[in-house]
Amino acid sequence: MVGFETFLEPSSTERKTGMAYDLPEGVDIRGKYDAEFAKILSRDALQFVADLQRELRNHIKYATECRKEAKMRYNNGTLPGFDPATKYIREREWVCAAVPPAVADRRVEITGPVERKMIINALNSGAKVFMADFEDALSPSWENLMRGQVNLRDAVNRTISFHDTARNRVYKLNDQTAKLFVRPRGWHLPESHIFIDGEPATGCLVDFGLYFFHNFKAFRRTQGEGFGPFFYLPKMEHSREAKIWNNVFERAERLAGIEKGSIRATVLIETLPAVFQMDEILYELRDHSVGLNCGRWDYIFSYVKTFQAHPDRLLPDRVLVGMTQHFMRSYSDLLIRTCHRRGVHAMGGMAAQIPIRDDPVANEAALELVRKDKLREVKAGHDGTWAAHPGLIPAIMEVFTNSMGNKVNQIHTVKREDAANLTEEDLLQRPRGVRSMDGLRLNTRVGIQYLAAWLTGTGSVPLYNLMEDAATAEISRVQNWQWLKYGVELDGDGLGVKVTRELFGRVVDEEMARIEKEVGQEKLKKGMYKEACKIFTRQCTTPILDDFLTLDAYNRIVIHHPKGSSSRL
Predict the structure, then answer these.
(1) Alpha-carbon gap, residue 519 to 515, rounded angstroms
(2) pLDDT 10s digits, 321-343
(3) Which is the catalytic residue, given 183, 264, 337, 435?
(4) Domain Malate synthase C-terminal: where (predicted)?
(5) Exactly one of 106, 185, 469, 477 is catalytic; which is it?
(6) Contact at 8 Å (CB) between 375 and 404?
(7) 161: number of CA atoms within 13 Å, CB side?
(8) What distance in Å separates the CA atoms of residue 209 and residue 184, rounded to the nearest whole number?
(9) Considering Cα of 361, then 362, then 366, then 372, what sign does the dihedral take?
(10) Which of 140, 270, 429, 550 has its CA 20 to 30 A from that of 302?
(11) Which pLDDT value is given to residue 563?
């Protein structure tokens, strides 16, 4: 294992051998060689990642098997619920470690991929936090992932700049910037350009390990006020997965020689099973937690996936599944109560709207919807919320500030004890609403366009005045699959048509024609729309629902280079 002293100064082993990465024993890189990437993929950094992988691989495999077993139970009719074995954790009085002063105020957080210009604009946006994303907002190509690590290193060191040649403008950081959080990928995603002991590395350990190794020292000085780095953790389903993350953090802290509890993380509650594990997740991360977040788009996706074998739990049009649905409001209320009882932030959901510059009336109507949603959040007790675009930040900040006054959060003032009475039935209540042809068409059109962009390297995609990421494509896919599997009747537009493979085939053809009309024939030919259409259609019509759209599509963007051109000879 590398010692903490190797974190402080580059060692002689970081010298490169010709045009190849200098690799520790058992590590193989199959991504393209790049001299800038080689600075990130130093021998000692890779050794750190490899040691994490070796120590935790069996725990990760066990957690993965537990997910499969839970899925089988749900498919056989069992409903998710609170675990009687951990009742003592839920009922006992305990709190997480005190929130670091650097991140006490999180009223508005902006999110986006780890692209250079995006990072600068987001850090300069006026938001309190920027979540830089290796997950749903990023297409995980080798270039995107490694370039993202370079960009984050430069951002932490405050040397980052970007020259926009088209506008002849240079972007640099302001003196005052948002606090930086980083979201690695979920446990389920591999990193197939890096092999450790003959198998693909775990994507999130690569994301975390490389970023932490190169940035912890500068981050604690420039951003964390003695704490950090800070993270967001996605796609958890059970507290055993939080325990693995806690082991990662403790090992990293020991090796770096920093105090236990320096690293802090917010967990996204974005799977249905996780809502019944919120206390347990916080308990496992109690020395490292700074709260939970309502990842509401993925939560809806997870609702369908969890109940894929339950024809009595069909969703209405996804645009109708908002926070006013009882099961969604219950989830938000219980999250607030749980977080505040344990002394940490309860973060609200995403506002995905994009300013509509050519239609002031439509823009104001969209902004008013955002204000109402954020007013609901702050009144409910959320301590902050998410925005996808800098243009939303002033309006959202105003809503939270007007409601909270001079308080930086509501952790100790809004306890939501009324939510203690929420039951499993509240959290699982069937959503109400109609299903329509327009809903089927929107799912299809958005799913194909998002996937086409993802396959060509873009994971955060503006579509119909909303900034979409992989969560929207996942909802679109699983809802189409659900409607097709159970032959639902489209009762929302008076047609009474049943969803069949034949109907879906016609919808796909018609929506592809509409996409061509909207984007133009030239872009359609140059893009990967036809490939995306094939993948999306197959995913919607497969007899057995795939767990993740991106796992299937990932194989299309993995490019292995000859061994001699990418790794040490």
Answers:
(1) 6
(2) 999 999 999 999 999 999 999 99
(3) 183
(4) 436-557
(5) 469
(6) no
(7) 6
(8) 10
(9) positive
(10) 140
(11) 58
264 is catalytic: no
Burial 180-215 (b: 16+ CB within 10 A, else e): bbbbbbbbbbbbbbbbbeeebbbbbbbbbbbbbbbb
Mean pLDDT score of the chain, rounded to an integer? 94
Rounded to whole angstroms, the Cα distance separating 28 from 33 reads 12
Give the length of the chain: 569
Question: Do 489 and 498 meet the contact criterion of CB atoms below 8 Å apart?
Answer: yes
pLDDT of 565 reads 46
The residue whose two tokens read 């994009």 is: 354
Q: Which positions ≥6 away from 23 have C-beta within 8 Å? A: 29, 43, 46, 567, 568
Q: What is the pLDDT of residues 263-306, one digit of tens each?
A: 999 999 999 999 999 999 999 999 999 999 999 999 999 999 99
Distances (CA, A) of 493 to 320, 324, 436, 485: 14, 22, 6, 21
Question: How much is the pLDDT for 385?
Answer: 98
Res 252: pLDDT: 97
Average pLDDT over residues 555-566: 75
CB of 294 closer than 8 Å to CB of 332: yes
Residue 240 known to be catalytic: no
**Which class for 281: exposed (0-12), middle (13-18), buried (19 or more C-beta within 10 A)?**
buried
Residue 18 has pLDDT above 60, yes or no: no
CA distance to 122, 125, 132, 159, per residue, from 173 (Å):
10, 10, 15, 8
Residue found by looking up tokens 């958890």 in the block: 236
Instruction: Examine residue 80 and say whether the peptide bond preceding it is cis (omega within 30 degrees of 0).
Output: no
